[in-house]
Amino acid sequence: MHANDPLDVTRRSLIAGGVATAAVVSTPLGAQAASAPAQRAPAATLPVSLKINGKTRKIDVDPRTTLLDALREHLDLTGTKKGCDHGQCGACTVIVEGRRINSCLTLAVMHDGDSVTTIEGLGQPGNLHPMQAAFVTHDGYQCGYCTPGQICSAVATLGEIKDGIPSHVTADLAAGIAPTEDEIRERMSGNICRCAAYSNIVTAIRDVAGERA
Q: What does the UniProt keyword field contain (predicted)?
């Protein structure tokens, strides 16, 4: 081909033309994508009614909100602690419909209408629940972080044992059914105390169990 032939296209001119075309086409889109902030649709909320420590509380929560976060973040009941957030330490234990649960493993919307008891609902300074008083008497805590969950679990544990005693059993016989140390340790095994105050915790629970019997 002649040098002035319009069809005479060199590799260099072809590559240069391709790069220029790509730059012209891609630059506005790339700039627009970089400058546009990521937008996410707001999560829908659902109304939830909970009977907390004897009082009905109504809140609107993201359906993904755990009962633990609903208590702490929406209802300002910070006595219930967030420990592992995986249901392994028991620090978040509360009593729902008479049964203890790990509040970090359940959603608030699943308990609409349920009765929930937290550490704040068991007793107050000057009017302690017997289990709270026993923990104080027997030094059932050190740092105290796990203590609300330990106490809620202990109260529910004695409730579980009491429910297991047939109604025809007399008080005298029931005294002989008070939980042993091994039974208490087994029933409380889901509550971890990193300070290792276990022996004092067991003593406090046995003290209250004997009083109830």
A: Iron, Metal-binding, Oxidoreductase
pLDDT tens-place string over residues 14-59: 566 665 555 544 555 555 555 666 676 667 999 999 999 999 999 9
Residue 31 lies in a domain: no
- The domain that holds 78 is classified in CATH as 3.10.20.30
The domain boundary, picked from 72, 93, 121, lies at 121
State how far the alpha carbon of 80 is from the alpha carbons of 103, 130, 185, in Å.
Answer: 9, 19, 22
CA distance 9 to 50: 78
Q: Does residue 62 sit in the same domain as residue 143?
A: no
> How far out from the chain centre does Cα 161 lie?
25
Q: 130 lies in which domain range?
A: 123-212
Q: Quick check: 119 pLDDT over 50?
A: yes
Compute the distance between CA of residue 93 and CA of residue 139 in angstroms, rounded to an integer.
20
Q: Which residues contact 211 (CB under 8 A, 6 or more apart)?
A: 130
Domain limit, last residue, from 88, 121, 154: 121
Lowest-pLDDT choice from 17-26, 68-77, 187-196: 17-26
